[in-house]
Each structure stands twice: as C-alpha cells, then as structure tokens.
Amino acid sequence: MPVAVPPNTAMDVDINGASASGSTSPFEPPIVSLSVPSSTPYIPVLGNYREEYYPDRVPIIIDNGATNFRAGFGKDDDPYIIVDNLVSKYRDRKTNTPVLLFGNELPDDATTRSNAKSPFDGDICVNPEGMETAFDWTFIKLGIDDDKVDHPVIMTERMATPLASRAFMSELLFEAYSVPSVLYGPDGYFSMYANAPTAPSTVDGVVVSFNTQSTSMWPVLGGEAQMNQARRIPLGGTQGIDLLLKYVQLKYPGFPTRVTQAQAAWMLQTCCEFTPTSYIEKVRELSDPLKLRQFTKIVQFPFVAVAVQQLTEEELDRQAEKRREAGRRLQETSARIRLEKLIEKENNLEYYTKLREWRDKEKRSSWLARLEDHGFETEAEFESVVRKLEAAITTARRKEAGLEEPVPDEAPPTFPLLDRPDSDLTEEEVKEKRKQRLMKAGYDARMRVRAEKEREGERRRQVEKEEEEERDRDLKGWSSKLKREHEAMMDKIKGRKRKQAALSDRKSMAAQQRMRSIANLAADTPTGGKRRKRNAEDMFGENDDDWAIYRKIQGAEDEDDEEDDFSRLEAIESKLLAHDPTFDLSLTYAARENRRAALLDAFRPIPAENDLASTYQIWLNTERIRVPEAWFNPSIAGVDCAGLGEVLTGILKSFGEDERVRLIRNIHVTGGPSQIPGLPERLHYELAQSLPFGAPLTIRPAKDARLDAWHGMAQFSRTADLQNSLTTREMYNEWGPERMKAWKGGNWPGAIGIDD
C-alpha cells in the first residue's frame, strides 16, 4: 500500500516487512544466511494464444529493463515472462553451429555464463542483435506462430532516450515483426499510473525512478509528464552494488571465497537501509562500540565444515588418565635426575674436602702443584668451586625439605693483597692481586652507581615536594599544566605509531628516508653537495654522533624513547587520578586505546582460529548506511553531481505555489533500489526542510517496485487513451524510425505533436 505521510511529521514506514533495527540483542548481532535467488525456472510456450489473445489483438506489454525483461499480454494480471535481460552466444557441440540464447535459456556452463551480456550499455539499449534475439524468444514463448506479430506493442524506454536507440527498436518491430503499432514510455510514468491515488489520467505528482545506472525524476501535472523539468543523476543500482562490493573487499582483503556481484546485490537489498534523518548524526551515534555492534548484521557465507571425530565419555576419560599418568612419570623422572645430581655434587664435595686436607700436610709449592694436577690454576679457584658446591647442596636440601632459602647478609668484600707490594708476593699471589684489583674496580663502580641512585632519589623527592607545594597553592594551574603535558605525550606516542606504520609502506616518506640513509651509508661517495677529495681519509666514526645513524635505521632510539614516554605518561595519569577530580579513568591513554580497540572489534572482529563459520562471515555495519547515502551524497561513490534531495528541491522550486502543493501530495518512488528500507522517511526529511511548515508532503512508494511499470502499461492498454497514443505503421513510414507520436506520458525528444 502507498505510504501517506502527514504534513511535516515523522514517518513510520515498513517496506516489505524490513526492520530498521540493526540487532535483536545488544551483544550478538543477527546472522543472516546468504541466499542469492536461483535462476528463473523454465518457461513453456503459451498454449492458449489463439483462443485467448489473438481474436482481440490484445496488446503485448514489454518492460525492457537493463536488468530484467518482463513481457506478457495486456489482459493478464501479471507478466508471463520474467527473466534476466542477458544474451549469450553458445556453440552447439553436436552441430557445431553458433546459437544465440536469451534469458533463462542460458545453460549453466561457466563459459557461456561468462560471455553473457546485456543489450544495454548502462541505461541505453545499444545492441540490435541482442534485442532481436530477445524478441524472437519472447514471441515464441507467448505462442505467436504467424509470420508477423499482429498485436500492438507497448514498451518501456529510458527517460530522454537517444533517437538512435529508439530508431533500431522501431525498425525491428515494424520491419522484422510487422507490428501494427507501438507505444514507448518511461517505466516510472507507468508505475505512477498503476499507483495513482486518484484517476490515473489526471494524476499529479513527481516520479522518482531508480534505474540500473541512473536515477530519474520528473513532475506530472494532470496526468501529463513535464519532461522540460526532468532531471537525472548518474547513480543507480549498479553503482550501489559496486560500491558495497568495494567496501567489502577493502574490509576483508583475505576473505576465503570470492564475493560476486549477485551476492553484493543481495546484501544491498537485504542488509542496507537509508538513515531516516541526518547521516552525520547516525555516524556519530555509531562511534559507540555497543551501538555499532547492535546495528551490525552478519552475513554468513556457505562453507564446508571439517568433520571432527566426536569422542565418547569413556574415551575422554581414558585420554585424561593417560595425560595424568604421563605427568606423574615426568615428575618421577625429574625427581630422580635431581637426586642423581645432588648425590654427584655431594661426592664431589667429599672428594674436594679430602683434597683440602693436603694443604696443611705439605709445602705450598707441592699443594699448588697438586691443585694444578686436579685442574685448578689457583687456590682461589679451588675455594670458589668448593663454596659453590656447598651452597648448591644446601639449597637443594632445603628445597627438598620445603624450607625457605635464607637471605644472605651482604658484607663488603675485602681485598687484602692490594695493600701489599708485589715484591712480597709470590707469582700466584701477584695473579690473584690483579684479579682483586679488577674486582675492587667493579665494586667501586657499583658503589658509585648506588650513590648516584641515592642522589637521584633525593632530587626526585625534592621535585615531588616542590610539585606538592605548587599543587597546594594552585591546583587548577597544576592540573592544567599536567593535562597539557599528558596530551602532548599522547600525541607523541600516536605520531611514533603512525611513523612505524608508515615504515611498512615502501612508498611512504618515512620508508624512503630510511632507504636514503641506508643508500648514503653504502655509497662510495656521499650524496651531499660536496664530494670527498680523491685519496682523502674517511673520518666517519671519529665523532660519536656519527654512530647514531645506525640507531636511527634500526629504530633503537624510538624503542628507548617509547619506554620513557610510557613511564612518564603513567606517572602523569597517576597524579591526575589522585588529585584532579575532573580526570577519571575514561580519559587515560589505556582507556582511549581500549575504546578504539572495542570500536575496531565491533567494526570487524578477528575470527577465532578454530571457528570456521566466523571465517566465512562478513560484518556489515557502517556500510549498511554509507552505500544508500550515496544517492543523497553522490560524492561518496565518486560521482560529481547534486544529491537526490537537492535535485528534487530544485524541481519543486521551479513551479508556482499552487502547482507545488499538487506535486508534493504525491512523491512517487519506484525501481529496485527504492525497496531499500528508510527511503520514504529520508526523502520526507530532505524535502520538508525546504517546504513551509504544514505542507502536505506525501511520499508514496510503489506497491510492487519491480512489476508496477508492467502493471501500469497493462492498465493503460485497457483504456481508450491507447488508440490516441499509438504510433502506427503509416506514421512510421512517414516520419521515420526516430519519431513517434506524442502522448502525455512519453518522452519529448523525437515526438511529433510536442510544441517546442
């Protein structure tokens, strides 16, 4: 039924039962299974042609669309033929003869389907050979078995069709099929004729016809099309399908299956919708991850599930018991190995203890010689090994007994040999003195570092004290300063991330600068303005700053700076959270990144590795409104023209107030894309802004947007106006193929009887 909208009020329209709601659950978007309609079933030859249609010469109605072809007799309620408007050359293998096939007669052979073409180039019919094939097939299916087609033909053509296209169409019908008369008219006018709220012959309104490659608009006053005010925007269903397909390919570059044009068309009709009011406000609303998830629809593509063997409870228990048994064996093996190592260490300690007893029983030279025979160069090395063995055995025994390891007391090391002159030391003691000197240098360095840390801690405490005093004096100023530093730090981190992302793109400025630095290092001569003199010494590396180029290439500086920046950022946020009541967790860097991650997850979640079904899913959210928005903002699709609302407003402003009121009472929308939900509400929103308050604006969608043009032609063929509108053979012979008789719903170019 038509949708009548009260003057300048909100609309509540349900087209084909489609809901504007995006989800049935706030956390789980609905899953829609992909269901592309199959091809039209076989159409048999009409058997009652001679009895039903031939005696009265019932007009033949042909809706020749760029996508679908519909044909039948004017006395029927619905068209007998509804097929895709496709023609394909097919070679019969038995007879080796080429055959032209049309509509649903195309075989399922992949080669034949890939060669199928429409007789149309955009919205213009340009292929006479294809149309002749379509007419032959149509008239045969309608049961016409004569040498000529002795019926008037009513046929659609695009608004402002080129004369050349009409010329070969008339030549085919009059010359090849000898039809007695023909009538051409735009499909949008016939759709309004079928849906007229008043007498069709005196209907007023504006036709908005969504076609395959364009969208046409023209006013109708008193049943007569005002083609001098007709407008067209070069955006139709094909552009909408292509745009959605590009968005899907950009969003899922690695999708496991190919998304076809037919599947994209199904998604456009099933999942997309027009925003009822402002598109910008809707996009801002979807910046909330929860609302974006609620608005999402998931398209499930078909896939072949991998067969997974289901185990019984007994088999699962048996596998679990095997895992537990393997774990016990592993624990026992580890305990046995630890015990064997402990016994080996105890044996070694006992042997070294007995070896140590020889130190008091013999001279020192003999003792050192004995140590050397056992693999020790010095006595200090021997004592170090013994101490390590004792510590390891003690630790193992305490761990076995479940006791905690005591914390050793840190005593400052002693270096007794450093105060003794080398002349009083033996050769071995001189070597030991060198080691003690190195050990003391290391100990002194650690002490200096510790002292520096203590001084740094004291300076930090002093800065914190001064900062606390500043906070007590001026909390607002202190907070503002930290917030500015917080924003600057976040901008710095974001800039570094952008730079890292740019390095992955070899065409980016950052990547080119990096390659330039590498090339400059590898070149024999520098790339600067002055070349190095021949045989001059290369002084690279003499300055410590020269080596920074390697850190720049590797990105080490960025890594170090990133750690420092995050530490500083965390410290600033901790202070603000503790002392500034206006700064909460939602303003922290982590919270902002979490919101961004949540928004990305709601926009396109990463499927789980073991979930095959989610791998074959496409999440449609912003695409659902962005693609239909192209009709109101064609720049989204790269089309440089005004939008639908702006063009309609221009048409209405070209009429006087009385005529404008007559027109806005019946804004008729038709065509395949007009079935996308939300179009009447959006048109009402766009037009109401330029109309006076209380204007009787009414948007009327077609009852059946796909068949109403055919229904309107059939309805018109049963009226007395038909005979006064037909172009007869005599007129064709006199005026030529480009001309036709002017009638109130037809195109003006090439029409005889229109006062230019």
UniProtKB/TrEMBL annotation:
Q: Which residues form a coiled coil?
A: none
Keywords noted in UniProt: Nucleus, Transcription, Transcription regulation
**Positions of the region Disordered?**
1-26, 397-437, 451-514
Renumbered to this chain, the Basic and acidic residues biased-composition regions fall at 419-432, 451-464, 472-493
Q: Which SMART domains match?
A: ACTIN
Location comes to: Nucleus
SUPFAM superfamilies named in the record: Actin-like ATPase domain (SSF53067)
InterPro entries according to UniProt: Actin, ATPase_NBD
Instruction: Give the matching Gene3D superfamilies.
Output: 3.30.420.40, Actin, Chain A, domain 4
Could you name the Gene Ontology cellular component terms for this entry? nucleus
Indicate the family of this protein: Belongs to the actin family.
Q: What is this protein called?
A: Actin-like ATPase domain-containing protein
